[in-house]
Amino acid sequence: MSAEFSRRTMLAAGAALAGSAALTAGAAGTAAAAAPSGTEERKPGAKPTVVLVHGGYADSSCWNATIGELQRKGYPTICGANPLRGIPTDAPYIAGLLDSIAGPVVLVAHSMGGTVVTNAAAGKANVKALVYVAAFVPDVGETQGELIGKFPGSEVLPVSVPTPYTRADGTTGTEFYLGRNGQAAFAADISAAEFRILQATQRPFDADSFTFPTTAAAWRTIPSWGLVAGRDKAIPPACERWMYARANARKVVEVPTSSHVVMLSHPRIVAGLIDEAARAVA
User: Fold this and answer.
1) Domains in the chain, ordered, with CATH?
2) What is the pTM of this model?
3) Contacts of 146 (CB under 8 A, 6+ apart)
4) pLDDT tens, position by position, 5-32
5) DSSP characters for 55-67?
6) Less crowded by CB within 10 Å, the N or C end of the chain?
């Protein structure tokens, strides 16, 4: 191999490496620009970050319609991926997400997500408002199992499919999926096609989620707002009204015709209540 060939080879390799480094830097810059705006330094006067937490039989995509409404209003939005394993797992996970956000937060929860945020937001100075959307609002010592049975009207258990799974410690747990026949009990006011997508993308919840007692009640120190789904057959509307009243919610909105998935069927009303809460604590 000649010295000239070796020199040319080294120069070519160096150029390739430099080009690769430039591409990597460019990609990193793009990734940084695409990072959730809620994790960046907040400008004075900027709107709070809205953090949305889903409940059982769902994943973060259940908030998509509401996110669109919020983003049109100029709100930075982040959906927390609720593990749905129960308070000891879910609350610290969402608490960590809250700690990663610079600036004020309006924390919104649906269904079982209400239990999670009630525990996770306790002591979080950046959480300025709690918005409960057809959600559990437990007090210290209460379980979801106690609350869902407090008033008649829940019809989701018969259409839930118990499925065994192996936990990280090797023990066997049970998780619940919403069955294909669950639309009337869970999502009666969306189309059949929308329900099939919801049912296909759902995340099951651990049955033990209903047995863990609440350890903190963030609504005692953080102002709250509530939305009642008037035809809810998952959490009875009477239970929602009772929990919101106990929490001294600053405002309660009722959607008389809504099923449990009000954020899908009435996203403008949900986003409007969130906007009102954000303005009230600005």
Assistant:
1) 45-280 (3.40.50.1820)
2) 0.85
3) none
4) 333 333 333 333 233 333 233 333 322 2
5) -TT--GGGGHHHH
6) N
